[in-house]
Amino acid sequence: MSIVRMGLISKKPEWSEVDFRKHWLGHHGPLVRNAPGLSQYRQNHVVDRVQRGIDFAREPWEFDGLSQLWIADADKPFGVGELPQRIIADENYFLGELHILTVRQTTVVDVPDEEARGRLKKRMSLIRRRPELSEEEFLREWQVHADLVRTMPGVHGYRQNAVIQRELQKGTPCSYEELPIDGVVEFWFESADALERAFKSEAGMKTMEHAKTFLSGITAFLVEEHRII
Fold it and tell me: Which of 2, 14, 36, 134 could in theory staple to 105 by disulfide, Cβ–Cβ 3.0 to 4.6 A?
């Protein structure tokens, strides 16, 4: 189980998607890579916002990317000195919004190696629990859900990221009501069609019926993953 810092990223409206991705990958990524204590850093560029295979309406989360940073020091994730200020200045230059989730990550279905990940399709989803459920009840049901996902055909990797801290604005912890996201799901499939087939299978339909018993929202993003570290 790992603690990971995730950024929910929106570009400034005047930036094109091409320019945003080019700057995030080519300039911001190498800048953050210099931070001490990072064991891994990945960028997930959103390429598709279709709710494939799930019977949930999209919630109003519209991001252009999701970052993932495996950090050694949660209080000073980018070290001290000049570098954190340079990172913040660059974020202010090209980002419109940046929310931060700190998550406890659990691998349910082993994630493929780097070579395989380069050809597979990755989907990330933001999930929200039903309002009548406590956080503890949600986490208990999510464990049950993990066992159901294991039975689905065509799943090449599945991770659950349970949110343990939220920052609506980077650096300032906020309440659940301000950023009502309980978890982030990571799925890997051979293709978008394979994703659809997995959810339309008998096991997939059973899994999604269970999802309705403890989730009130799922918002899915197909992403292109880039490893920086």
Answer: 2
Check residue 143 and give its pLDDT: 98
- Kindly report the three-state secondary structure assignment for every residue of the chain: CEEEEEEEEEECCCCCHHHHHHHHHHHHHHHHHCCCCCCEEEEEEEEECCCCCCCCCCCCCCCCEEEEEECCCCCCCCCCCHHHHHHHHHHHHHEEEEEEEEEEEEEEECCCCHHHHCCCEEEEEEEEECCCCCHHHHHHHHHHHHHHHCCCCCCCEEEEEEEEEEECECCECCCCCCCCCCEEEEEEECCHHHHHHHHHCHHHHHHHHHHHHHEEEEEEEEEEEEECC
Q: Residues 49-73: what's their mean pLDDT?
A: 94
102 and 165 Cβ atoms separated by less than 8 Å: yes
47: domain CATH number is 3.30.70.100
Residue 99 to residue 30: CA distance in whole angstroms: 21
Instruction: Please tell me the distance from the alpha carbon of residue 170 to that of residue 88, in angstroms, as a whole number.
Output: 9
State pLDDT tens for residues 2-43.
899 999 999 999 999 999 999 999 999 999 999 988 999 999
Q: Give the total number of structural domains in the chain.
A: 1
Q: How far apart are CA 128 and CA 161, in angstroms?
A: 12
| Structural domain harbouring 107 | 2-227
